[in-house]
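Predict the 3D structure for this chain.
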Amino acid sequence: MQEIVVISGKGGTGKTSITAAFAALADSAVLADCDVDAADLHLILKPDVRATHDFSGGKLARIRSEACIGCQRCAEVCRFDAVKLSNISNDVVAKTYAVDPVACEGCGVCVHFCPVKAIDFEEAINGQWFFSETRFGPLVHAKLGIAEENSGKLVSLIRKEAKRIAEEEDKSLLIVDGSPGIGCPVIASISGADLVLVVTEPTLSGEHDLNRVIDLADHFGIPALVCINKWDINPEVAGRIEARARERSVATAGRIAYDPAVTEAQVAGQSIPEYTDGPLREQVVTLWDAVQRGLEKGNGHKEK
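Done. Predicted structure below.
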């Protein structure tokens, strides 16, 4: 099994639309949406959810008010100011202590120092992950809870499950919609991948962020290719991006022109190859062919 991860230096470059297009063009593929902070691949693929699982990325402290003796030791040792006096009383004190779950970092220090062991250390439910079927094949995706963290752990879980399904169903390809940026979720998205496709756009921020993503892929020794989306809105910057990529021995796999059909396809809940037979589809097919060649050569990072 081989793995392609579609990433970008910033959000909104079109990587999800391209991932959905690849899903429509690929044979025998498993799909994974690792952009768990803002997952939207399901909007195009319209998955039929077959299994739902809770995700726990850490633990939270919870004080049992009936056992609290009000000694305030927990508040003294908490470096995150997450322990406060409450208005709840018990048989010992008029006010007991409570943990603010929003402020709690799950370090467990209060649990360790509580003299009467009145603090439980419980798994925190940070979101959910799903196994689904789509018209293009199996999809593993997730939904992180509002303001929840540990998305890097959730990304790793999604990739692990997608690989397991690919092996069980004898699928030859895993296509991943990765996270944008260069932080922990992106590292979790690309580590160990066979090839990354970096989707950028011809703007100054797109140019800058592309360089950072190439640095990241190079650091982990992962072959990379570049796609310039909406290249024709600024051909000068698009040319500069291609030149800079060549200087770094990274090939440009394709250019996608600005086309209202992309938005129209999204509104219709379809991938680009499903929605149109025009030039846009031809550009996406050309891009997919280049990505497949890069995957076959195993040297997409080094331009011949």
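Residues 279-297 form the longest helix (19 residues).
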